[in-house]
Amino acid sequence: MAQRLDSTGLTFRQDYFSDPAGWAALVCLLKDIFGIDIGPLQQLGGPDPTSMPFGWFDAEGEVAANISAFALPFVLNGRIVHAAGLQSGAVRPPWRGRGLYRDVTVKALDWCDRQGFEAVILYTDKPSLYEAYGFRAIPLHRYEGTAPAPSTPAALARPLLPTHAEDLARLQSLLKGRSPISTSLAVTVNAAMFLINTRLDPDIRISVLEDRQAVIAWKIDEAGRFSLLDVVAAEIPPLAAILSGLKIAPAFVEVLFRPDKLGWEGAPQPLESGTRLMLRGLGDATPIFPAMLSPMAEF
Ligand SMILES: CC(C)(COP(=O)(O)OP(=O)(O)OC[C@H]1O[C@@H](n2cnc3c(N)ncnc32)[C@H](O)[C@@H]1OP(=O)(O)O)[C@@H](O)C(=O)NCCC(=O)NCCS
């Protein structure tokens, strides 16, 4: 157990994203530790402008340890919670066990408290790492059920390519004006995560239903199993219109958020695998109805 901080040979930097070398060093850390590349965010409108990274840098300019906070307002049980998210938490192997992660976590949480955030959320595969700071895991549920009868669409959906300037601008404008996808649990904006998530999983399809002014994030597997990941729109279209617009007629559907705005009911299924969503603050609040944050909001 690391009781004291040993930061010999390292320099602490906060709020360093405006320095291209600092940003590049974080991209490199996340590639090395998690195998994910957030570099393309620069072509997708840049990192979340509210980001506040806390990092220890070595003499070569590499990030040895980091955690980043950012504003992440979300809806919980019908109310908007003024929350922050924590992401990009990692320490390079040679620097582990020196208290560096505890140090950046405490700094980030202090910053969140000083900013007046009423809650902090994060995803992790190591829940015990955060329990000491007052985080608790929130149970997550997806929904499954038979598909609704198709409705006649005014127009068919077309694929939207965030790498194309016009499509990116359209998506960014819809993200700005979106309604939360559920009244139980949903982010309110979080454009940067939606955009980078379109790049991190090649199976995610992004389609636009122009007549509904809605962007649909979805997947379909080889067996024809349809998963709805997210809908970006000021007014959420019914699931029947989404399926008709996508011109697909699956027997079963899976919805990866509470479908209370979709005009469709499925059965909630607990999410057993994957990372856990953890919440700090708000007493013992938890979603009243089974719910989850859309995977497009995952960070
Ligand atoms: C998890 C990780 C960040 C810990 O880094 P570290 O520099 O060794 O952490 P510290 O020395 O600051 O230790 C902080 C605390 O976490 C505990 N800890 C370390 N690794 C842990 C693990 N895998 N699971 C649970 N607790 C852990 C330490 O015992 C210490 O507890 P203490 O404050 O009671 O003394 C690092 O191993 C890592 O980057 N792993 C890969 C990426 C990752 O898992 N990121 C975080 C999860 S989202």
UniProtKB/TrEMBL annotation:
Name one molecular function that GO assigns to this entry: acyltransferase activity, transferring groups other than amino-acyl groups
Which Pfam families does the entry mention?
Acetyltransf_9
> Organism, per UniProt?
Rhizobium leguminosarum
Q: Does the keyword Transferase apply?
A: yes
Annotated keywords:
Transferase
Which InterPro entries does the UniProt record give? Acyl_CoA_acyltransferase (IPR016181), GNAT_dom (IPR000182)
- Superkingdom of this entry's organism? Bacteria
The N-acetyltransferase domain covers 10-159
By what name is this protein known? GNAT family N-acetyltransferase
